[in-house]
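hey can u check if this looks right to u? its 610 residues, i copy pasted from the old doc so theres a chance i mangled smth
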Amino acid sequence: MKKLIAAFTASLILAITLFLAALFYIDLSGHKHFVYKAVHSGIETGDVVVDRYVTEDKLIYKSLSDLPLSLGENRSIQRLYLDKHSLRTLKYTEKSGCGKHASSVTLLFREGETVDYLYMRYPAYFNVKGFSTGENTLVFSPEDIMLYMPLVDKYNFWKKGVQHFEVQVPVDAPVPLMRDKLEMKYRNDEYFTALGRRVEAESYTIGSSGLPEAELLLSKHSHQILSLKVPQRKTAFRLQVFTENPGDRVKLLFGTVSARLRSLLKKKLSAPDREPREEEYLFDAPEEMLSRKGIRSEKIYYGPPPETTQGTLYYPEKGTPSASAILVSGYGAYTQGDLLFLESLADGLAGQGIATLVTGNRTRGGNPSAGYPSDAAVSRDIKKAGEFLLTDERTAGLPLSVIGYNEAGRYALNAALSDPDMASCVLIGLPFTRNGFSRYKEVSYESLQSFLRQKGLGNFDTDYLKMAAGLLKRHLTGLYEGKPAEDIFFRNGIRLPAEDFRNYLSGMSSDTLKSVDKPVLLIFARNDKVLTPELLEKIGNAKKNSPDSFQTAVFRELPPYYGAVTYTGEGIFFKPEDDVLDIVTDFITSAKKKHDRSGVPESAGGKQIE
């Protein structure tokens, strides 16, 4: 009897093992793995890993973009689920940001011919349910290589020639989905060197009136994407690794697991003996980033518990600073370019004798709607930073200024207007929303079309744009009128920050500049995407209203992050725009006492100063 039980148990275990092995083999055989090298403006910025899975009823794509040398958002996780037979989109999700700090989330769920759609970049969001896009539209974005793969799956290679596909395009902004008709066109056969060998390939172009044209190169027989180029965006992807057969997949799987175990073991052995902090900060002030000798950076803590805040103080190692400044970092996940500019600006100011405290960025990882302080909390942080600088032995008695970068400028200006200890204020970049439209009355077909062109998108269908503009206007109108969100929790625990968005939109307008009662310097470029003729006129009126205190430095053109980037084998090195640094330094050091109205020099570095 015991032998019979043992034999039955062994048979059962063998059957289960074979069943699991069969499932594992099916998963391996239906799994393709791609690694693409991403290139921008001729610089290799990192890798994009795409996995393609075939299940019983679904076709699934998963993508991880890791772009350490990108100045924009350097990490993105995407998931796309298609019906296996019809290739209809079922679900699409994307989370983008810098490292573990998520700055934007896109969710799309299909039900028949309609979708539920959410885009959020705190505090701005656009949320709509039952949005009609058609049953067979594919999700598409010009620079996401994963989203080209469903087009290749649907393309009929027996017919070749020109074929069209209806697509829905998520815009990196709180606006409705755009809809367009893509044209995929066969060009010619050619040879291409990929994976260390010369292969036969077919060349295609993909584009439309609303999206930039892309050049796609596919392997002739398996139709895998070998390369993708989007000339207008200066972006390219080139295949580095392709794994398809089960044996190679097992090797890759064990290699990945062992690499992660080694990484975790190394991290555990080298981890500092301290309690983990609930909050992590973006400004770590690495020593290798400091561009001048004789400058020190030190993490400091200011304010009484439990609201103690961490920041980074840059100051000259020798001698006494001539002035002090608070550099407001803002709140949210900054791009790497923004971070490099802020760190190098603080470093540069310290090199010219201005001790600079970069306020702590209290962004939490994960859900981008969680963990952001209110405007009142930001004001308290700036106030505490000022009190620290006014009492610390290195900076006590020095004139105190506040600097805001882009949208964080609204915090800096409000602090300067409300705090008598602030001698002056510098606004680098226009301190107005880059999250889309700031006033619902401004939304129209023409304004939406202009906004999309600023995003590098072209002409979409007129009737569709008019419908989308009306939908967006109703969305913003509801926020302005204080109506609660229809669903506070949309999906996946994402909280819609309706009140935060409303406060954000009403927090500062161009009319606020007329309230200036102490020296304020506004630095911006005419190529700033936020700038409009109406806004330029309002800035001019504000200057006329306060000619002694409100000054502007207007550049004809500036790079996106106000400085020059150098790529080396060791990473990215950043040098702030010399003229911007000089103008800020001259302005701050001229504020010898509160309410000094000396303004800015008439010219600096040959740039146009108004």
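DSSP finds eleven helices and 25 strands in the chain.
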